[in-house]
Amino acid sequence: MDRGRRRGCLVLFMLFSMLSAPLARASCGSGKPFADAVTTADTVFVGTVMATTNAGRIAMVRVESIWRGLDLPTSVVVNGRDTGTSAPPDLPGSASSEDRHYTVGQRYLFLPRDFVRDGSPTFTDSPCTFTRPYSPDLDRYAPSTARTPDPLLVTPPPFPASTPPGVVPPWEIVAAGLIMVGLVAAVVLRIR
After folding, report:
1. 6: phi > 0 → left, psi -120 to 50 → alpha, else beta; which?
2. Number of neighbouring beta carbons within 10 Å of residue 113
3. Residue 81 in 3-state DSSP?
4. pLDDT at residue 128, as a whole number
5. Residue 165 needs a FRET pair 20 to 30 A away by CA distance; which of 6, 37, 104, 135 works?
6. Distances from the Cα of 134 to the Cαs of 101, 116, 140, in angstroms?
């Protein structure tokens, strides 16, 4: 293989490695049964996703019922983005296989990983937690002590809804452009 081809292959390998590395990180497995998680988690609540941002990874949730944990306001933010990802949330490479994606209008039973209070409640979540879309079979886990949210607590300000279907987010356009530049550079290097 000549030098130009090796260089082109190396450039392509590096591009694909950078774009795919975050996707290979997730591995779950607490081994804990769901019923145990519902009764031992620090925070458990039922809520409906009202809006999302960051490609559906961050959700504004209307709290309906608190099963475990502190009192909550009527709305909270749930961040399904892997907090170990160093890239800003809207840039290529910021997606991770540990990100959870939420659907607007979907009701969930939330068992978030942890709670951060910066003026208002924010939770982090991932596919490794027991959070799941709510269904009637989950009613059997509802404790008799379930309570409603406190309307007097601080509610986070709303954020813009997620990108409408069919609209390509700007970061995806930039990512595609960078890939094209890399491919053109590889071809040019191969020709020389």
Report:
1. alpha
2. 16
3. coil
4. 81
5. 135
6. 15, 24, 12
Condensed to tens digits (0 to 9), the pLDDT of residues 44-85 reads 999 999 999 888 888 999 999 999 998 999 999 998 875 554
pLDDT digits (tens, 9 = 90+) for 120-149: 667 888 888 899 999 999 999 999 999 999
| C-alpha neighbours within 13 Å on the C-beta side of residue 59 | 27
């208002």: which residue's tokens?
Answer: 120
Which pLDDT does position 33 carry in this prediction? Answer: 86
pLDDT at 150 over 60: yes
* Tokens representing residue 101 in the block: 């994606």
Give the residues across from 170 on adjacent strands.
none
CA nearest 180: which of 17, 11, 54? 11
Tokens 């997730």, residue located: 26
Provide the Cα torsion 168, 174, 177, 181; round to 10°: -170
Q: Residue 118 has what DSSP assignment?
A: S
Backbone angles phi, psi at 87, to 5 degrees: -70, 145
Write out the two tokens for 107. Answer: 């009701």
The model's pTM is 0.63
Residue 191 carries which side chain, given as an amino acid letter?
Answer: I
Strand partners, 48: 62, 107
